[in-house]
Amino acid sequence: MKNIQYENDKVYNRDHVATPRWVVENIYNLINVTAYGSVWLPFNNYDSQFKTQAAELKIKHKATHIFDDLGSDFFTTIPPDDCDLMISNPPFSLQNKIIERSFELIEDGSIKAFALLLPLSTLETAKRADMFQRYSDKLAIIVFKKRIKFLGHTSQFNKACCWVCYNIDSLKETRLQWI
Ligand SMILES: C[S@@+](CC[C@H](N)C(=O)[O-])C[C@H]1O[C@@H](n2cnc3c(N)ncnc32)[C@H](O)[C@@H]1O
């Protein structure tokens, strides 16, 4: 069901960009998403491709968003029971806090694995490098060879991106790849 705040967010929030279908199809294949039993999509409302395709593939999933009926803020929302994968395209402007929170959720056992679509520049800065290095045991990075064309409400923009993944089984042997 459409929600006014969400529809406004799509128009005015520079952080709100829709991920194109091919990007979601591609990562769902790469990580073998159908093998997961309980998937959390924490920045995804009803019209997101992450959600649409999870439903099409009949994956048990929970999509939440700050402007859903419960106001599901990522930083306070409890992941679904037995969550073995969290995957999404988070708001890039909050990336440091989101990466930090994602590792906290791994640490406390609320999620087993995650994949976050982030700007390629996420690999810069000492703060993020330190976080990634601390968890490098199970980290995998997938770099896009071409910039992704994100679909804004009134505009589009191209961004160099990568997936930052943690503890994804299908990526164990290929911890760094370009797609
Ligand atoms: C990059 S968009 C992703 C949209 C959609 N997931 C997609 O890829 O098509 C990130 C979304 O997260 C929402 N958001 C911002 N802060 C949030 C928070 N603390 N908790 C949950 N969602 C948040 C924004 O409003 C925005 O719609």
From TrEMBL:
One of its GO terms (biological process) is methylation. Keywords: Transferase. One of its GO terms (molecular function) is methyltransferase activity. It comes from the Bacteria. This is Sugar-phosphate nucleotidyltransferase. It comes from Listeria booriae.
